[in-house]
């Protein structure tokens, strides 16, 4: 009998993948399920990406790349950070990986020893906890104010111990779409300097911003934290390249070197064609990114307007990304179709069974009492889903 490692026995499946796969399974059974569970743009990758990929294929660029990624792509990422944030990074301070998520895991593996601690700010992306645990380290969750989803710097300070090695910052946030204030982000940077830990700054949604707001990189606010900051970014969200699996990490050269060594023994590097495709998108895709962001703005305005008309629900207005994170605690104790809502999991189950809408419970993001739904889909689908949700909420008794 095969003996499974204890660390994998503790591993929990990703709730986002489980929800989307269950929705697909129900569709195969003939159910008319609308899935708002997956954080994936519904746009096909734009021409700047496709044309670069075709050119790479026709030129026969199908060989291994350096483990850290194509030199041209790493240099272009460094240029992007200079152009967008006025931050000076060399290509040797950039690594390209098979998506942002593997790079976060590589960073955790490079920074965390068994028994170390990593601070997470709830709500937090579903994979952070499991990746920290896979490194035999301990996730330390700091709660936020459920009315605003803002954290307290005093609470962060209280969570820091001599074993604290990492804090993961995600803004614009998945699942809430929150952009944390300059004051809060600056405070985190100052704490990282004071207590000598590394901030993994997951800013994968930094190009999807709404209502004329501006995203600022933490180092624009606190340049002194440069040696304690690793940026995580990529092509999946802004360039609609989820299936190409291309992410970037930008940070201190020694950390990038260690992550590259790990990647060399693991994947050997990302797909060559996908890297050339991402290079085309970075160089020539800004107008296409702007067009997609404008469509997300329309969808955000539509879904928030529709939700504002519904009973028993309160949402946190998203400032970026493409998610709504809604507070459904007022529905607790209510019934619909013979089902009683007792928590966010039972709410999502009832919504799926009674209204045929698939969403993700907030407890999967360390924030019980909420649920997440994506609006990275057409206005027609959003309107249909909101009609069903309004009817569902109106039936609660």
UniProtKB/TrEMBL annotation:
It is an enzyme of class 2 (transferase). Pfam families: Aminotran_1_2 (PF00155). The keyword Transferase applies. InterPro entries: Aminotransferase_I/II_large, AspAT/PAT-like, NHTrfase_class1_PyrdxlP-BS, PyrdxlP-dep_Trfase, PyrdxlP-dep_Trfase_major, PyrdxlP-dep_Trfase_small. Its EC number is 2.6.1.-. Signal peptide: none annotated. The keyword RNA-binding does not apply. It catalyses: L-aspartate + 2-oxoglutarate = oxaloacetate + L-glutamate. Keywords: Aminotransferase, Pyridoxal phosphate, Transferase. GO terms for biological process: amino acid metabolic process. Residues 32-387 form the Aminotransferase class I/classII large domain. One of its GO terms (molecular function) is pyridoxal phosphate binding. SUPFAM superfamilies: PLP-dependent transferases. Its cofactor is pyridoxal 5'-phosphate. Belongs to the class-I pyridoxal-phosphate-dependent aminotransferase family. Homodimer. This is Aminotransferase.
């Amino acid at each position: 009998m095969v003996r499974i490692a204890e660390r994998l026995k503790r591993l929990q499946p990703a709730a986002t993948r489980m929800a989307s796969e269950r929705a697909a399974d129900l569709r195969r059974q003939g159910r008319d399920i609308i899935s708002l569970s997956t954080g994936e743009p519904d746009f096909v990758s734009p021409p700047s990406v496709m044309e670069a990929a075709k050119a790479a294929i026709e030129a026969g660029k199908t060989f291994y790349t350096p483990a850290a990624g194509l030199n041209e792509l790493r240099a272009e990422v460094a240029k992007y950070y200079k152009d967008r944030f006025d931050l000076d990074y060399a290509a040797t301070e950039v690594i390209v990986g098979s998506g942002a998520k593997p790079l976060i895991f590589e960073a955790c593996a490079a920074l965390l020893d068994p028994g170390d601690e990593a601070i997470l700010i709830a709500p937090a992306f579903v994979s952070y906890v499991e990746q920290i645990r896979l490194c035999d380290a301990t996730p330390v969750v700091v709660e936020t104010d459920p009315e605003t989803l803002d954290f307290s710097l005093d609470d962060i300070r209280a969570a820091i111990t001599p074993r604290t090695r990492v804090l993961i910052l995600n803004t614009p946030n998945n699942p809430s779409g929150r952009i944390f204030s300059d004051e809060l982000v600056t405070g985190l940077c100052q704490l990282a300097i004071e207590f000598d830990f590394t901030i993994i700054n997951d800013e994968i949604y930094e190009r999807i911003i709404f209502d004329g707001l501006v995203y600022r990189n933490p180092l624009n606010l606190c340049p002194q934290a440069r040696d304690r900051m690793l940026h995580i970014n990529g092509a999946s969200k802004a360039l609609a390249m989820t299936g190409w699996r291309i992410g970037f990490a930008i940070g201190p050269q020694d950390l990038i070197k260690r992550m590259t060594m790990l990647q060399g023994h693991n994947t050997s590097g990302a797909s060559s064609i996908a890297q050339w495709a991402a290079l085309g998108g970075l160089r020539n895709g800004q107008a296409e990114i702007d067009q997609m962001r404008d469509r997300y703005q329309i969808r955000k305005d539509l879904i928030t307007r529709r939700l504002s008309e519904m009973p028993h629900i309160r949402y946190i207005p998203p400032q970026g990304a493409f998610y709504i994170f809604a507070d459904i605690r007022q529905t607790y104790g209510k019934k619909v179709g013979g089902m009683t809502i007792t928590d966010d999991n039972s709410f999502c189950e009832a919504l799926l069974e009674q209204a045929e809408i698939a969403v993700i419970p907030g407890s999967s993001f360390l924030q019980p009492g909420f649920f997440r739904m994506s609006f990275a889909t057409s206005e027609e689908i959003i309107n249909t889903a909101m009609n069903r949700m309004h009817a569902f909420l109106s039936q609660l008794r």
